[in-house]
Structures are given as structure tokens and as C-alpha cells.
């Protein structure tokens, strides 16, 4: 019988380093999380490098790795050793000219429970992801692991209620969001509070609307590697929320941290029984949602 309670963790890190060092760092922090009782552990988006999407530069494609190579081998061994599930976001080289922003879901025995490719790809100042990433083609998934059934979405996906809804309807108990989001330093004073608040609110809304747990792992630190720019100040503030949007654990804006919280499936069931949003959905009236715009 599946466990009705299990502990999840998000790890918030500064990852402004080379791949080898970032890998060693993440392995160490995953060990620490597991030693504190974490059973499903999430790393930030594109863990192995600095956030290279601040520019459009073909040299950055060298940071990508083929499936089941360095990241998978290292974290597969670690997951099996520790008996935990690890969600590993990485830069995937699928073939020459096709790259994805992806995440492995590695089960407790070191096998691949699932693979997710980021579906929504942004193109904003210093977040030039459309230059690098082909949109995902594996769809939204609920992935069964030996600890629980989880859904992984990546960063820009977090703004889309449709992505959260479909993943939850497929049976995900937790929505995991590996993330790399921050402020443009010159905009922080004027817009920073509202930008950060919107980020928190939309994901808490997904938790409430779907009766699921939500976990987001972000980076911290100023990543400034381009001359003539101010870089991106990643705002951290990783968090875990319960199925009513309640904050179960919250990180700072500027420290490397491990957050741990318990997923209680009995609580989730009780919330859904009392707030039966799934029951009352008018699926007969939702056809227009698949249109780009509803023209008059």
C-alpha cells in the first residue's frame, strides 16, 4: 500500500560556477537533505551551470549533455545509495540542433521514473530561452515513484494554470517547479516586490485550485558575466505550500538552504472533499480554452 505521508525537499543554491563544481555541490546538498529525512528532493533549474540564457551565444550549447550521461549517471547512483527520489533539471542535447530544458525524475533504485521537457519557453530581456530550447514534446505528466506520484513543471511553466491543472488531473500529489527567476537589478526597487509577489501568488493559486502540494526551488545570487549589463539577481525565496496554499516552508532571498515539509495525502483528500473543485468543473463548457484567442 502506498505511503500516506512522505517528506519532500527543495534545495536553494548559488550555481554560478562550472559544471564540475556545481555537480559536486548539488550532490553534497542532496546528501544533507536526505540525512534530514527528505524522500523526494528537488534541485533548481539548469543546475549544472550559471544561467547562460542572459545572452544568445552558440558557444553556450557546449553546456548541454546527451540523455543518460553525466547528470543521470551521478544522480542515479546517488538516488540508489540514499534510497531517495531526486528531480534533476538539466540542459538536454537531444541531437544536433535540438536542445531541451529538461528534468529527470530518478527513482529510489536509480532508475528513470520519468523525463520532463519544459513546455513553455520564455523570451524576455536576459531570459532568451527561445534561442536555446525547443518546446517540450512529452506533455504534462504525473510520474509514479516509490515515494509518491509527482509532477514536474519548469520555471516559466509555473505561470500557466492549464499546466498545473492537467498535471494534477493526471494524479500528481505534488507539483515540483525547478526555477531560475530573479530581478533585473535596475528594476528591483520599482517592480521587485510585485514581481516576487506575483510569482508566489500564482503557484499558491495552483495549490488551492487543484488541492495539491507545490514546491519551488530557485537560485540565489547575482549572476553577472556579460560586459555592459547588470546581470540577474536571483531572488531565492524557494518554498513548499500545502493544498490550501498555506506556506509549509520558506527560504530567504539570499542564503543557500534546504527546505523540508511533509506531504500528507489524508490532508489532501480531506481538502478536496471539502473544496470539491474537481467535481464542479464544467468540462462541457471549456472547449474554448484550446484556442489562441476567442475572437468576437
Q: What is the H/E string? A: EHEHEEEEEHEEHEEEEEEH
Mean pLDDT: 97
Helix content: 25-40%
Query: What's the β-strand tally?
Result: 15
Principal-axis shape equals: globular
Major pleated sheet? 6 strands, mixed
Overview of the structural elements:
It comes from Flavobacterium chungangensis. This is Carbon-nitrogen hydrolase. The mean pLDDT is 97. A hairpin with a 2-residue loop joins strand 3 and strand 4. It is built from 5 helices and 15 strands. It is globular and about 55 Å long. It has a 6-stranded mixed β-sheet with strand order 5-4-3-2-1-15. The chain is of the alpha/beta class. The termini are far apart. Helix 3 packs parallel to helix 4 (185-210). It has helices at 19-35, 70-82, 161-169, 185-210, 265-274, and strands spanning 5-12, 40-42, 85-95, 98-106, 112-117, 143-144, 149-152, 174-178, 182-183, 213-217, 220-223, 232-235, 239-241, 247-250, 257-264.
Write the layout of secondary structure elements.
Layout: E1 5-12, H1 19-35, E2 40-42, H2 70-82, E3 85-95, E4 98-106, E5 112-117, E6 143-144, E7 149-152, H3 161-169, E8 174-178, E9 182-183, H4 185-210, E10 213-217, E11 220-223, E12 232-235, E13 239-241, E14 247-250, E15 257-264, H5 265-274
Parallel strand pairs: 1-2, 2-3, 7-8, 8-10
Antiparallel strand pairs: 1-15, 3-4, 4-5, 6-7, 9-12, 10-13, 11-12, 13-14
Amino acid at each position: 500500500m502506498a505511503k500516506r505521508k512522505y517528506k519532500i525537499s527543495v534545495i536553494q543554491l548559488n550555481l554560478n560556477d562550472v559544471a564540475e563544481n556545481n555537480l559536486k555541490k548539488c550532490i553534497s546538498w542532496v546528501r544533507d537533505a536526505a540525512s534530514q529525512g527528505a524522500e523526494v528532493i528537488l534541485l533548481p533549474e539548469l543546475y549544472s551551470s550559471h544561467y547562460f540564457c542572459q545572452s544568445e551565444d552558440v558557444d553556450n550549447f557546449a553546456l548541454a549533455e546527451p540523455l543518460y550521461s553525466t547528470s543521470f549517471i551521478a544522480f542515479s547512483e546517488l538516488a540508489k545509495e540514499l534510497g531517495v527520489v531526486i528531480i534533476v533539471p538539466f540542459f538536454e542535447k537531444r541531437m544536433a540542433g535540438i536542445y531541451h530544458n529538461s528534468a529527470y525524475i530518478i527513482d529510489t533504485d536509480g532508475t528513470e521514473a520519468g523525463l520532463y521537457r519544459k513546455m513553455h519557453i520564455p523570451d524576455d530581456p536576459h531570459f532568451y530561452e527561445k534561442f536555446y530550447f525547443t518546446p517540450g514534446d512529452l506533455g504534462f505528466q504525473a510520474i509514479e515513484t516509490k515515494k509518491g506520484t509527482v509532477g514536474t513543471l519548469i520555471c516559466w511553466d509555473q505561470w500557466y494554470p492549464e499546466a498545473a491543472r492537467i498535471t494534477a488531473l493526471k494524479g500528481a500529489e505534488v507539483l515540483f517547479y525547478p526555477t531560475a527567476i530573479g530581478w533585473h537589478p535596475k528594476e528591483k526597487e520599482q517592480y521587485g516586490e510585485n514581481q516576487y509577489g506575483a510569482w508566489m501568488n500564482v503557484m499558491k493559486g495552483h495549490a488551492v485550485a487543484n488541492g495539491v502540494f507545490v514546491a519551488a526551488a530557485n537560485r540565489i545570487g547575482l549572476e553577472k558575466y556579460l560586459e555592459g549589463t547588470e546581470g540577474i539577481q536571483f531572488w531565492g525565496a524557494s518554498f513548499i505550500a500545502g493544498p490550501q496554499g498555506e506556506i509549509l516552508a520558506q527560504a530567504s532571498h539570499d542564503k543557500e538552504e534546504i527546505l523540508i515539509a511533509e506531504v500528507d495525502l489524508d490532508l489532501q483528500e480531506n481538502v478536496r472533499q471539502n473544496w470539491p473543485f474537481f467535481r464542479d468543473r464544467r468540462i462541457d463548457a471549456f472547449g474554448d480554452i484550446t484556442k489562441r484567442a476567442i475572437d468576437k
